[in-house]
Amino acid sequence: MKITFIVEGKTEKAFLPYLTRFLQHHLGGRMPRLDVNPYGGRIPTGDKLERVVRNLLTGRNAADHVIALTDVYTGSQPPEFNDANDAKNKMRQWVGNNPKFHPHAAQYDFEAWLLPYWPTILRLAGHNYAAPKNWGQVYFVDIIIIIVV
């Protein structure tokens, strides 16, 4: 099985080895092949996102599933998305009803997804700062585990 991630940039791509180790631990021998399709900024929107997903799911090296990861705040004015649910809904609308496409959005930048590990980060950094307020996120790792299992 091959899962391709459409991501915004280098930070998300750098996270892949850690995600791979996490999944290997939880999935054992059912580990999918993970590919990353970085965009050096925001991921495509509208018809272009639909074309990118369609191309990733077809052809000789087709992915079995595509996960698009975006931040709610993309820097566009006016803002493209109101919140994470709006971002996921718009991506689904752009791509269409495709059960192999899994949109995911972070209410905050991707880096904020690390905040559930705040105690570990503090210990490693040697600090005792409080975590930012409203830092809960829904994790796309659950999507991968559901796809594979």
Explain what this protein looks like in three dimensions.
The protein is of the alpha/beta class and 149 residues long. The chain has one domain: Rossmann fold. It is 38% helix and 17% strand. It has helices at residues 10-14, 16-27, 46-56, 84-95, 118-125, 141-148; strands at 2-7, 33-38, 65-71, 101-106. Strands 2-1-3-4 form a four-stranded parallel sheet. Helix 4 links the parallel strand 3 and strand 4 (101-106). The longest helix has 12 residues, at 16-27. The chain starts with a strand and ends with a helix. Mean pLDDT is 78; it is low at 134-149.
Can you describe this structure in just a few lines?
With 149 residues, the protein is an alpha/beta fold. It has helices at residues 10-14, 16-27, 46-56, 84-95, 118-125, 141-148; strands at 2-7, 33-38, 65-71, 101-106. A four-stranded parallel beta sheet has the order 2-1-3-4.
Which short descriptors sum up this protein?
149 residues; alpha/beta; Rossmann fold; 4-stranded parallel beta sheet
Question: How many angstroms separate the termini?
Answer: 11 Å
Give the tally of β-strands: 4
Q: Identify the CATH class.
A: Alpha Beta
Level-2 CATH architecture: 3-Layer(aba) Sandwich
Helical percentage: 25-40%
Q: Largest sheet, if any? A: 4 strands, parallel
Number of domains: 1
Q: Strand-residue fraction?
A: 15-25%
What pattern of helices and strands is seen along the backbone? EHHEHEHEHH
User: Total number of helical segments?
Assistant: 6
Rg of Cα set: 16 Å
